[in-house]
Amino acid sequence: MFVRRTLTHLILTSTLIVPLAVSTGCSNGQGTKSSANLKASEMPEGGDWNGVYFDPIYGYLHLQREGDNVNGAWRNTEGNAWGEMSGTASGDIYKFEWKEHKIGMVGKSATSEGHGYFRYSIPKAGEAHEIKGEWGLGAEEAGRKWTAVKQFNRKPDLKSVLPDEVERRGQGGGWDESSTPLPKKDKGSEAPAPTD
Predict the structure, then answer these.
(1) pTM here?
(2) What's the confidence (pLDDT) of residue 163?
């Protein structure tokens, strides 16, 4: 009887505690939301998604727009990670999918990915343009803030954020090249081709 009552009590307690532990354990402390409820407005006059934007944490974000599609790339200010994004812009809203690669790491934890959005704004006439938004991991598209200020007189260059290791991947050469050319063979010293 005592064992049955104790076992029942443990089962009831665990059914109440486990969901609470799971829901609080997955929080990032910033009130993670799975999706952003956004309504696009018109792009502010003089606004353009094309450009380079700066955030003190995420570094320089380069955005290039072609029609409704916008592609982006960034390198964080610490220089230990770079990322890429792509998505669709509608008015003052840009929704994207992103991937961030940690430099020098391999394996599953070397790459993170998720979703996010930016809203384009011009606080006052003559002031710097801003993009404010959020990003989330996996299927989440909100929860972590990202605000960046547009840098005027800078043209976006998505490849500029790539680390040297990535830029040169697949190009080959360098390690086996000699500064002096190889000697030419005498035609008479070549071995005859085998015959069947």
Answers:
(1) 0.67
(2) 87
